[in-house]
Design a protein that fits this description.
heterodimer, A: 328 residues, mainly alpha, ABC transporter involved in vitamin B12 uptake, BtuC, two-stranded antiparallel sheet, 2 strands, 78% helix, globular, B: alpha/beta, Rossmann fold, 4-stranded antiparallel sheet, 12 strands, 27% strand
Chain lengths: 328, 266
C-alpha cells in the first residue's frame, strides 16, 4: 500500500517535471498550449519547438536517467559496493577516449556518438577478458581492472588534449555531459536499446536480491550466478554506452539515485529497480531543465547540475538516515 | 537406498589437490560431524556435496541420482547450505531473507503464495526467529543471524542440510543452541552434515563423526568408536588425554600440555 503511494507519487512527479521541462526555455510555452500541441492543435512555431527540440530532449534525458539509475542499482548489488556506479568498470573513460578522437578528427555529431559508443564497449570487453578465469569472473578483479584501465585512458586523453588544445573546449564540454545536441535520431537509437535491455535486466532482480547475500549463497538458493553476472554486465554496459553516446558522461545520477531510492523504498530489487528508474528519469529531466534555464540563453553542462544538486541532497539523506538509526 | 553417496571423489584448486579419493555412504537421517585440521578439505568436501564445486573425478549421488543431473534450482530443493561467513551489509528484513529460501520453488515472475508464507513462518518458528521478522538482519547478534540463515535453509525444505562451521564464532550459549537445533532437525527427518572445529562439541551432538586428514577421510564412525588419542594425534598433531563425560559416557578430549618454564612478565 505504502509502496503504491510512493510509485504513484514518483510517476506524477515525472509527468510534472516533463511538462515543466517542455514549457521552460528561451520561449516560454504554457501547459495549456503543450496539451494543445499533443492533441494535434496548437500554432506553428510552438509546435515546431515542442516537437522538434524539446520533446526529443526530454525523452533523451528521461531515458538516460532511467538507464543509468537501473545500471547503478544493479552494479552496486553485483559488486556489493556502495561506491559503484555505471562508470566504475571503465565505460566512461572508454567513451571519453572515443569522443575525444572523434572531435580531434572532426567526425561530426554522429561520429562523436558512434565513437563514444564503440570505444566504451571495447574497453569494457577488455576489462571483462582480463578479469575472467575459466568460465568465472571475479567482480573484485573487474573493479580493480576497471580502475587501472580508466587511469591509463585518462592519461591518454590528457595527452591528446594537450596536443590538440584548440579542441580543448569541445572535449571538456562533451565530458561534462549535456543533451543540447540530441535529436529524434539519437532517441530512435537509444530508446529501444535502453528500454529492452532494462526490461531484460529487471527479470533478474530477484536473483540480485540473493546475490546481495553472497554469490556462493545465491548459488545454493538455485541462482545461476555466473550467468546472471554476465547478463547484467553485458546489458548494463550496453545501456551505459548508449546513455553516454547520447548525453556525454553525466556523473552522479547512477550513483545517488539508487541510494536515494533504497532509502525511500527499501532494498528489495524487485521494487527498487523500477522505482529508481522513475526517480532517475525525474532527476535527470529536472537537471536538464535547470541546465538550460539558470544562465539562459547560455547552457551549462548538466554534470555541474547533477553534482551540485545531487551531492548535498545525498549528504542530507545520509545524515538523516544516520539519525534515524541512532534513534532505534 | 542411500540418502547420500560420495564415490571416489577427487578435487583440486588448480594444481593444489584438496580431496583425494573420498568414499562415503549415508543411509539414514542423522547428524554427521566433520572434523579435521585446517586445510584438511572439510569445507571443500561440503561444497562438493552441495554441487557448488565440480569434482575433477568421482561422483556424488543424492538418492539414486547423480548430482550432475540436477539443475541448479532442483539442487536447491534437495540440499540447503548454511555458509561459514554471512555478509549482512544490506537492510533486508529477516522475513524477506527467509523468504529467499523459497526461490528454488518459484517461477521467475511468480509471487510468493500462501503456502510459501506458511513454510517461511514454520521455518522461523522452529528456529525461534519469528520475533525478528520485521527487524533488519544487520540489527541482530551473530547467533541470531545464524538462526535466521538456518531458517532460510529450512524454507528450502531440503532433505540434506549442510553447515560450514556454523558455531565457530559464537559464544557457548549460541553454540549449544544452534547445535541442539541441528540435532532436532536430524530427528525430524533430515540429514545434517556440519563441519565443526570443536572436537568435544562435535562428539556431544553428532551421531557419526568423520575425521579428515590431507584430503582423505581418515576415520569414520560413532564418537565412542573413533575418538582415541592415536586418531587425534594423527589428524591434528597434538597429544591429548581422553576423559569421559560422566553423564553421556562420551569421551572428552583434553590437550596434554608440557610443563613450561615460568614466564616473567616484564
Amino acid at each position: 500500500m505504502k509502496r503504491n503511494i510512493l510509485f504513484i507519487t514518483a510517476i506524477l512527479s515525472l509527468i510534472f517535471t516533463v511538462l515543466i521541462s517542455i514549457s521552460i526555455g528561451a520561449v516560454e510555452i504554457s501547459p495549456g498550449e503543450i496539451v494543445n500541441v499533443f492533441i494535434g492543435k496548437g500554432e506553428g512555431s510552438n509546435r515546431t519547438i515542442i516537437l522538434n527540440l524539446r520533446l526529443p530532449r526530454v525523452i533523451a534525458a528521461s531515458l538516460a536517467g532511467m538507464g543509468l539509475s537501473i545500471v547503478g542499482t544493479f552494479f552496486q548489488g553485483l559488486l556489493r559496493n556502495p561506491m559503484a556506479d555505471p562508470y566504475v568498470l571503465g565505460i566512461s573513460s572508454g567513451a571519453a577516449l572515443g569522443a575525444t578522437l572523434a572531435i580531434i578528427l572532426s567526425l561530426g555529431l554522429f561520429g562523436i556518438s558512434f565513437m563514444a559508443f564503440g570505444t566504451s564497449l571495447l574497453v569494457i570487453a577488455f576489462v571483462y577478458m582480463v578479469s575472467r578465469t575459466g568460465t568465472k569472473i571475479s567482480m573484485n578483479t573487474m573493479l580493480l581492472a576497471g580502475i587501472a584501465v580508466s587511469s591509463l585512458i585518462s592519461a591518454l586523453i590528457s595527452l591528446l588534449m594537450l596536443l590538440n588544445h584548440e579542441e580543448l573546449n569541445r572535449i571538456f564540454f562533451w565530458t561534462m555531459g549535456g543533451f543540447n545536441l540530441v535529436n529524434w535520431n539519437s532517441v530512435a537509437f537509444a530508446a529501444p536499446v535502453i528500454l529492452i535491455s532494462s526490461s531484460i535486466m529487471y527479470v533478474f532482480s530477484r536473483d540480485l536480491n540473493a546475490i546481495l547475500t553472497g554469490e556462493e549463497t545465491a548459488e545454493h538458493l538455485g541462482v545461476n550466478t555466473e550467468l546472471v553476472k554476465k547478463i547484467i554486465l553485458i546489458l548494463g554496459s550496453l545501456i551505459t554506452a548508449t546513455a553516454v553516446s547520447m548525453g556525454g558522461i553525466i556523473g552522479f545520477v547512477g550513483l545517488i539515485v539508487p541510494h536515494i531510492s533504497r532509502l525511500i523504498i527499501g532494498p528489495d530489487n524487485r521494487v527498487l529497480v523500477p522505482f529508481s528508474a522513475i526517480l532517475g528519469a525525474v532527476f535527470l529531466t529536472f537537471a536538464d531543465t535547470l541546465a538550460r534555464y539558470i544562465l539562459r540563453p547560455v547552457e551549462i553542462p548538466i554534470g555541474i547540475i547533477t553534482a551540485s544538486f545531487g551531492a548535498p541532497f545525498f549528504l542530507y539523506l545520509l545524515i538523516k538516515s544516520k539519525r534515524n538509526n541512532e534513534g532505534m | 537406498m542411500a540418502i547420500l553417496q560420495v564415490k571416489k571423489l577427487h578435487f583440486s584448486y588448480g594444481k593444489n589437490k584438496v580431496l583425494e579419493g573420498i568414499d562415503l555412504t549415508i543411509d539414514e537421517n542423522m547428524m554427521v560431524g566433520i572434523i579435521g585440521g585446517n586445510g584438511s578439505g572439510k569445507s571443500t568436501l561440503l561444497k562438493n556435496i552441495s554441487g557448488y564445486l565440480k569434482p575433477d573425478s568421482g561422483n556424488v549421488f543424492i538418492g539414486n541420482r547423480n548430482i550432475k543431473d540436477f539443475s541448479i534450482k532442483e539442487k536447491a530443493r534437495h540440499i540447503a547450505y548454511v555458509p561459514q561467513e554471512i555478509p549482512f551489509d544490506f537492510e533486508f528484513s529477516c522475513y524477506d531473507l527467509v523468504m529467499m529460501g523459497r526461490m528454488p520453488y518459484l517461477k521467475r515472475f511468480e509471487k510468493e503464495g500462501e503456502k510459501d508464507k506458511t513454510i517461511v513462518r514454520e521455518a522461523m518458528e522452529i528456529t525461534n526467529t519469528w520475533i525478528f521478522k520485521e527487524k533488519s538482519i544487520n540489527a541482530l547478534s551473530g547467533g541470531e543471524r545464524q538462526r535466521v540463515y538456518i531458517a532460510r535453509a529450512l524454507a528450502q525444505r531440503p532433505h540434506i542440510l549442510l553447515m560450514d562451521e556454523p558455531v565457530s564464532h559464537l559464544d557457548i550459549k549460541y553454540q549449544i543452541e544452534i547445535l541442539t537445533l541441528a540435532k532436532e532437525l536430524s530427528f525430524k527427518g533430515m540429514l545434517v552434515i556440519a563441519v565443526l572445529h570443536d572436537i568435544n562439541l562435535a562428539c556431544q551432538f553428532c551421531d557419526q563423526i568423520l575425521i579428515m586428514k590431507e584430503g582423505k577421510i581418515m576415520a569414520a564412525g560413532t564418537p565412542k568408536k573413533i575418538l582415541n588419542t592415536d586418531n587425534i594425534k594423527s589428524a591434528f598433531s597434538v597429544d591429548v588425554e581422553l576423559l569421559e563425560n560422566p553423564i553421556t559416557h562420551i569421551p572428552y578430549v583434553v590437550p596434554r600440555l608440557n610443563k613450561r618454564k615460568k614466564f616473567k612478565i616484564v
